[in-house]
Amino acid sequence: MKSYIKAYAMLVAAGLLFAGCEMKAAYKPKNRVVEGEVLLRVYLVRHGEAYRNVPHPADMPEQKLDSLTLRGMDQAAGAGRILKGKGVVAVIASPTGRTRQTAAAIIEALGMQEGYLQDAAFASLKAGTTPDGQPVSWEWRQEQWKAGRDPRPAGGESLADGTVRAISEIGQLAKKYPGGSVAIVTHGEICAALLGRAEDTPMCQRYELHDVPTGSVSEIVITDVGWHLLKEGLTRATEE
What we know:
There is one protein chain. The protein has one domain: Phosphoglycerate mutase-like (Rossmann fold). Helix content is 40%, strand content 16%. The chain is built from ten helices and six strands. A hairpin with a 3-residue loop joins β5 and β6. It starts with a helix and ends with a helix.
C-alpha cells in the first residue's frame, strides 16, 4: 500500500496525472507518403484557448467567452511561427471571435499583406436540441458517438453534416489556390472531422481519436489520389 501511495505521489509531483482526455497518446498518422498531383495543402489550425475552454464565472459575457485567454494568444502566435516558411497563401477562419483572433495572430506572424478570410463552412457544429427537447451538449454528443451513433439534433448538425460542408469548401479552395497552401482556423470537432477524413477513421471515432490541442497545427495534403495526413496536433512545444 505504501509503495502504491509513493508511486502516486511521484506521478503527481512529475505532473503526469491529467484528465483522461489528456492522458491518451498522440495519434500517429498511418501513412505519410504523398501520392499523386498535389491539389491543395491544408494546414488545419485549432483556435487558441478561449475563456469558454477553461473554468470561468457563470455570468461571463458571451463576447468574453468567445475571446482568447493569455495562453490562447500565446498559442495563436505559436501557430503562426509553426507556419512560417510553409508557403501559406491564404488564412481562412470560421466567423467566431476566438478563431478570428487566432487567424489575426497568424497573419501577423507570417507578415502577410492580405488579411484573413471568414468562412462559415468551418464553423462549429450547430447545436440544436436532443430528442427530449434539451439543448445539445458535448457530453450528449460524446455519449452518442461512443454508442456508435452520429445523430442530427433537431435544428442542429451531426458531425457528418459538419464534415460535408467543410470538405465542400475545401474543394472550392483547391480550385481557387491550385497546388497552393492554405491555413484554416477552425474548431476542435471540425479539425477532428477533417483529420478523420484523411485517415478514413469511422465518423463516430473521429472526435475521440483526433481531438487535437488548442492552438495546434495539423497538415493534410490533398492530391488527385486522395487525402494524406502528414502531421497532427503540432504545437510549439512538440516542434521544439
